[in-house]
Amino acid sequence: MNVDFHLHIPEKWIKNEVIPRVTAEKLVQFMDEFGIDVGVILLIAPYIPSDYVYKVVSYEPKRLIRFASVILTQQTLL
Description:
This protein is α/β, with parallel strands linked by helices. It has helices spanning 11-15, 20-33, 50-59, 74-77, and strands spanning 3-7, 38-42, 64-67. The chain starts with a strand and ends with a helix.
């Protein structure tokens, strides 16, 4: 099994309002072209919303895994 542990969703897809289903399709197409069985999506907070990645993964749960990202702030730490 080939696992890519460092996939990113391009920020321009978010800006262009690409819907999560299409994003999932594009990622899986990329993975198929390169023989990747499973991909772990690393989001870059706050540019790629966590809920968007959740929706993307929900379309391909056997192929895509969501890796969370949290921005720590003073308020978060209190």
